Amino acid sequence: MTGLFNNLKSEINKPDNALVKLILLNSVVFLALLLLRITFTLLNQASVYQWVLDLLRVPAALPELARKPWTILTYFFAHEDIFHILFNMLFLYWFGRLIDEYLGTRRMVALYILGGLAGALTYILVYNISPYFQGVVGTSRMLGASAAVYAVTVGAATLLPNYTFSLLLLGPVKIKYIALFYIILSLAQSIGPNAGGNLAHLGGALLGYFFIKMLQTGNDLGKPIYAIGNAWERLFRKKPDIRVTYSARTVQRNAGYAKPANPGKSVEMPDQDEVDSILDKISQSGYESLSKEEKQKLFRASQRK
Questions:
Q1: What would the pLDDT profile of 241-278 be if each residue is shown by its tens digit?
Q2: CA distance readout (Å), 156 to 78, 205, 259, 264, 286
Q3: Which neighbouring-strand residues pair with 59?
Q4: Strand blocks (E) in the chain
Q5: Staple partner for 212: which of 46, 99, 136, 158, CB 3.0–4.6 Å?
Q6: Taking the domains of the chain in order of start, what are their residue ranges?
């Protein structure tokens, strides 16, 4: 058990490891909810578990949302069903890895968070304006990272539409077709038993598409997320010890914060020789042979007007 906690601590402390941290956070919340559900069910206090769950689920009803505004964030880190979290985390890893490699860690996190927010807003908006949902708006609540994962999935498919995954029984399949299949599936189920969840999927997918399209024109929708992340890091960054240097005439004190490295910072715009070299490498060895920096340079070059 000690070895497991040490391994988890090591993974959490690694730099440029936001994708693994997102998966770990979702997994920890799932396990905590599972233990609470088992415990309170055995104690014949299932209502207590439901009360805890409602602190995380985003409600469709506006009065309840006003009392629990934090749920528009917490809902996309919480799952109840094991297969729900399993497939969400698998898709997040597969497609999030591509965003991380080509656009950097910060943009992958921003895409996940903005996708979750877009999913919540779509769900709330449609449930409150559509006559079809008026009878259930007061009792409907949603949880799960699907909208955030859809944003990452569609974002990756928009950025790299012809990138292929080798699927069991199907062989190589371009990711644009994988994303399209799941969008159509959610659209077909948008008036079914899980209508709210599928509507959120579509909201997340739309955000993922526009995030990449805007980024390709030089407009980064993730800037507010980066600013919040930077402020959070500054708030909790440990101050270095004060160093006191004595000289014959003066006493000098140096203190302050070390400037953090920006793991998600975009590389500089490459020149034409660099681009030609990267393209030659692709023609000889394929996309997979590129380093993370080369992939980001290729993307930056595609933004030239």
A1: 555 544 444 334 333 333 334 444 445 666 666 766 77
A2: 23, 11, 31, 16, 18
A3: 141
A4: 58-59, 141-142, 164-167, 171-174, 243-246, 251-254
A5: 158
A6: 2-227, 272-302
